[in-house]
Amino acid sequence: MWDAGVAELGRRTNGRRGESGAFLLGEPGATSTIRQFIFYDDIDPDALNTGIVLIDGRRLGALWKICRDTGLKVVADVHVHPGSFRQSPSDQANPIIAEANHIALILPDFAQGSNLPGRIGVHRYLGNRKWRDESDYLFPPFHVGKYLWR
Ligand SMILES: [Zn+2]
Q1: How far is the CA of 107 from the centre of ligand 1 (A)?
Q2: Contact of 144 with 136, CB cutoff 8 Å
Q3: Rounded Cα gap, residues 130 and 127, in angstroms
Q4: pLDDT of 99-131, one tens digit each?
Q5: Cα(61) to centroid of ligand 1, in Å?
Q6: What is the Å distance from ligand 1's center to 3 Cα?
Q7: Domains parsed from the chain with CATH numbers
């Protein structure tokens, strides 16, 4: 599911002409499991028009309806950068979901690389416009595959 979603994000950069992104819906919990990508431009057709991701809040009703219909919640978000996976000042100033512990993932190089933890941005929102960059953690809080607890 991750690989398919990432490939679609790469396609939606429209020949590397701009950023793309998605809400990541899942089952929240002590460990949240991502089940579905909801692409920004499916919620707001104009979201990708400027080259950076901008979502009109008035369009979010469609997202909340999907959440109600599926019983899933937005547990993270992901967007694609032309270069580095570090946050831009705009990313920091405009959290997609301004809830503490929300995770914002950033895929570098128009999502053309491996796109696995260790090579992507993993940014935790702490609330009050503060973030923690957890991209370089030995065990990042985002994992592809199953965790095996011992
Ligand atoms: Zn960004």
Answers
A1: 9
A2: no
A3: 6
A4: 999 999 999 999 999 899 999 999 999 999 999
A5: 23
A6: 20
A7: 2-133 (3.40.140.10)
